[in-house]
Design brief:
heterodimer, A: Immunoglobulin-like, 2 domains, 6 helices, flat, B: two-stranded antiparallel ribbon, globular
Chain lengths: ~260, ~300
């Protein structure tokens, strides 16, 4: 028993890896070794912000039928969804519904397509995938006539086009132990807490999970302007006018020479 | 190079914004209009939320009008008395307009209302100006043509509160410019424009002002009306983005300086004919937008 089996070697390598990584969020269950971390946990929306790309990496004890699913969910918001129809030749918003607390950002990445990893029932129970995001109307709002599925499809399509919702199977597992995934936060994300769930699936069942958090905040000049505009609206309005008059006058002077 | 706009909450190419400001500023300087009738739809096309485009445009027009009016002021082309009557109507009108805007936004029809207002006003004014300027150009080419009267007399000139406007060589009821200011003020707030493209023809055809003082006086009153819209939108909807406005006006004031010089070289009727063509082009584009089948009949709005 002096030779290390390949499996225990992998475990040893994983332990060494943990030792090298700071700020770990771990939850070890049974035989599993699911560890994950992000290269950044604070995203600052500053004046030159144009989206952010984060790297999520970690280790699992990867066996033949194992999969990793990573879900990043942004701050929930109510969303108004409107349908146009043609009224005497002109396209007008005629129907509208308001959805209750929909994630303003939702990225789900996995090692294989979701429907290959688990059954439709399991995915539904755990709320995984764009199709399984809760689609609830706020009180007093209703969808008349059309099939709600048409509206749900429209919601998913529009959020995907905005780059706010995304479903992909781009997670790569290296040497049966290391996995990594890119998280792309587009420029139009909202500030707030972004919850990251890392799920380990084994033979189609949830086997282990761990969590992480990304904090997206407005910082610097852009944050100060936003605060000023929302906390002192009349003062901000006066400032905007004085600023404009001064700029206009200054420009005219510069060009008078 | 990208810049994050703090109120619009989007990231946008800084040179795109500067270029857009410069181009619209050039036209604004040539024709003496705020340029909002082009800028507002273009900003919406770039992905700026419609309410932010409207609120921010008002702020930017304050600056471009201040810059533009100074050149006219030095040449004595501002009828201050007429301007004050116009702007008092404009302030009442724009205040009403901001409230109508908020109401339309609540019921989800603001985008359509903006487009339809543009179609109606750009269509009517563009056609009228085109016809009028073409006639004038044709008449001036015919030697010995009948000389036009300064302005036509009709029932509008029978209204009370008559006032003398020396610079405009007019003796008309103060209700007339007040009413014009009021109507343009309402539209100014809803459409995110200075209203110059409506005000200039209204001053020429309704009030009968001489063309030489029209542009300067229009710019003068636009400063105050758009300042009022800027203030009210800041208080009511927090949709004034000073960073976006600042970038647009840097481009805009530079463009406007060149525009004012180009405008001084062209003749009045040519100027009006050219503006009429631009106005009609924007109008047709908007008609196209509301008539063709949209790519997606569904649209979303994130509610705060």
């Amino acid at each position: 028993m002096f030779s290390l089996s390949s499996k225990s070697f992998r475990r040893l390598a994983a332990i060494v890896f943990i030792g090298l990584t700071a700020n770990l969020t771990t939850s070890v269950v049974a035989q599993d070794l699911l560890v994950a971390d992000l290269n950044e946990k604070e995203v600052a929306i500053t004046t030159d912000f144009n989206g952010a790309d984060l790297l999520l990496f970690g280790t699992i004890d990867h066996e033949l039928n194992d999969d990793v699913i990573i879900i990043v969910e942004g701050p929930p918001k109510n969303i108004a969804i409107r349908q146009k129809s043609r009224v005497s030749g002109i396209w007008i918003n005629t129907e509208s519904a308001t959805l209750d607390t929909i994630p303003s950002f939702y990225q789900i990445s996995s090692t294989r397509p979701l429907n290959v990893i688990a059954s439709t029932k399991t995915l539904k129970e755990l709320g995984l995938g764009l199709d399984n995001i809760p689609f609830d109307l706020i009180e007093g709002s209703s969808i008349s006539g059309d099939d709600p599925q048409v509206w749900k499809a429209a919601l998913i399509r529009n959020m995907e086009n905005e780059g706010l919702w995304n479903e992909n199977s781009d997670i790569k597992v290296r040497k049966k132990i290391l996995f990594r995934s890119n998280i792309h936060l587009p420029a139009n994300i909202l500030p707030g807490e972004y919850h990251v769930r890392i799920l380990h699936f084994r033979s189609g069942q949830l086997f282990n999970e761990t969590y992480s958090l990304i904090n997206v905040q407005k910082k610097g000049l852009s944050a100060q302007i936003y605060q000023f505009a929302h906390n002192y609206p009349p003062a901000y309005g006066m400032f905007a006018i004085i600023f404009a008059v001064f700029m206009g006058w200054g420009a005219a002077r510069v060009f008078r020479r | 190079m990208y810049i994050y706009l703090p109120i619009a909450e989007i990231s946008i190419n800084i040179f795109l914004i500067l270029g857009l400001g410069g181009m619209v500023g050039l036209l604004s300087g040539i024709f003496g209009v705020g340029g909002g009738f082009l800028m507002t739809p273009l900003l919406i096309f770039l992905g700026v939320p419609a309410p932010v485009a409207v609120g921010t445009e008002a702020n930017q027009i304050v600056a471009s009008s201040v810059s533009g009016v100074l050149a006219h002021w030095r040449r004595g082309n501002v009828d201050v008395k007429m301007g004050i009557i116009l702007l008092s109507g404009g302030i009442v009108g724009s205040t009403i307009g901001v409230y109508i805007f908020a109401l339309l936004r609540e019921i989800g029809q603001i985008d359509l209302a903006i487009k339809l207002s543009f179609i109606v006003f750009l269509g009517i004014i563009g056609s009228l100006m085109l016809v009028e300027s073409t006639r004038t150009i044709l008449r001036s080419r015919r030697p010995g043509g009948k000389r036009r009267k300064l302005h036509q007399h009709n029932w509008l000139h029978g209204l009370p509160f008559k006032m003398r406007f020396r610079k405009s060589k007019l003796y008309i009821s103060a209700l007339l410019p007040f009413g014009v200011g009021l109507l343009v003020g309402i539209l100014s707030a809803i459409m995110g424009v200075g209203g110059g493209f409506i005000m200039v023809p209204a001053m020429i055809y309704v009030l009968g002002m001489p063309t030489s003082v029209v542009v300067g006086t229009s710019l003068f009153q636009i400063i105050f009306v758009t300042a009022n819209v800027t203030f009210l939108q800041s208080v009511q909807t927090q949709t004034v983005d000073v960073v976006l406005a600042g970038l647009l006006l840097i481009g805009g004031v530079i463009g406007a300086q060149f525009g004012t010089r180009i405008g001084a070289m062209l003749r009045g009727e040519q100027l009006r004919g050219l503006l009429a063509l631009i106005v009609l082009a924007v109008c047709l584009k908007l008609v196209w937008d509301v008539v063709i089948t949209p790519e997606d009949i569904f649209s979303l709005e994130l509610l705060r």
